[in-house]
């Protein structure tokens, strides 16, 4: 198994799919690799591609505000990664071959972080990590157990920017996440 630093440099040089041709930066992830809670988005947009960090555009500002409500902070107590590490041109959805080729990196991150809780941000991450038939409007906020690890999905922050009427549901989901973190994690919300 690669170390965390070896994984970063291997991922930085990845050319497994066509997205490497148009990327500025590989967006590996942000946060501490010893976090108990792992957030997973879909893939980098333009701002993320330019900075090499997930969720730094408008959706990222909203995500940071959401995290703050329940005492989470990307610089302190969580890790944030994406299903695909390179920006799909024009912010299109990542194609299934791109997701499959890239998922090995996320699996390796997952093994090294060994989180207690995984929070999917949006439909694409939830379909990959929870259930192929996941419906975000129906299944957001529900808890799933996978080999002793707890999984749930929130609406993607970009969806909350487009449709503010989804925000009250997300507040309820965040409070549920806070409760489960308190029950499950030792170090996250001290
Ligand atoms: N949307 C995502 O899903 N991930 C990012 O990193 C940025 C926007």
Structure characterization notes:
The protein is an alpha/beta fold and 190 residues long. Helices cover 42% and strands 13% of the residues. It has eight helices and six strands. The protein has helices at 4-12, 46-51, 58-69, 96-113, 123-129, 136-139, 157-162, 167-184, and strands spanning 30-31, 37-41, 79-82, 117-121, 144-146, 149-154. It has a six-stranded mixed beta sheet, with helices on both faces. A hairpin with a 2-residue loop joins strand 5 and strand 6 (149-154). The chain is globular, with a radius of gyration of 15 Å. It starts with a helix and ends in a 6-residue tail after the last helix. The model has no long low-confidence stretch (mean pLDDT 97). The structure holds uracil. Uracil binds at residues 41-45, 48, 54-55, 59, 82, 121.
* Spatial extent as radius of gyration: 15 Å
Counting DSSP E segments of at least 2 residues, the number of strands comes to: 6
Order of helices and strands: HEEHHEHEHHEEHH
Distance between the termini: 31 Å
Q: Tell me the strand order in the biggest sheet.
A: 1-3-2-4-6-5
What count of helical segments does DSSP give?
Answer: 8
Given helix and strand content, the structural type is: alpha/beta
**% residues in beta strands:** 5-15%
Helical residue percent?
A: 40-55%
Largest sheet: 6 strands, mixed
Bound molecules: uracil
Mean pLDDT: 97
Low-confidence stretches: none
Choose one word for the global shape.
Answer: globular
């Amino acid at each position: 198994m690669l170390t965390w630093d070896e994984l970063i440099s291997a991922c930085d040089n990845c050319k497994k799919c066509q997205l490497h041709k148009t990327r500025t930066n590989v967006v590996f992830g942000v946060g501490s690799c010893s976090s108990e809670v792992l957030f997973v988005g879909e893939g980098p947009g333009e701002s993320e591609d330019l900075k090499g960090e997930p969720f730094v555009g408008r959706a990222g500002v909203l995500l940071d505000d959401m995290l703050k409500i329940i005492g989470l902070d990307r610089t302190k107590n969580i890790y944030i990664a994406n299903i695909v590490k390179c920006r799909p041109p024009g912010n299109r959805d990542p194609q299934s071959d791109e997701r499959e080729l890239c998922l090995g990196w996320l699996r390796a991150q997952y093994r090294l972080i060994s989180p207690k809780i995984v929070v999917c941000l949006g439909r694409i991450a939830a379909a990959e990590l929870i259930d192929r038939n996941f419906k975000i409007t129906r299944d957001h906020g529900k808890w799933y157990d996978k080999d002793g690890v707890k999984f749930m999905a929130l609406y993607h922050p970009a969806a909350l920017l487009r449709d503010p009427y989804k925000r009250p549901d997300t507040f309820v989901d965040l409070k549920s996440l806070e409760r489960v973190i308190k029950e499950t994690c030792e170090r996250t919300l001290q």
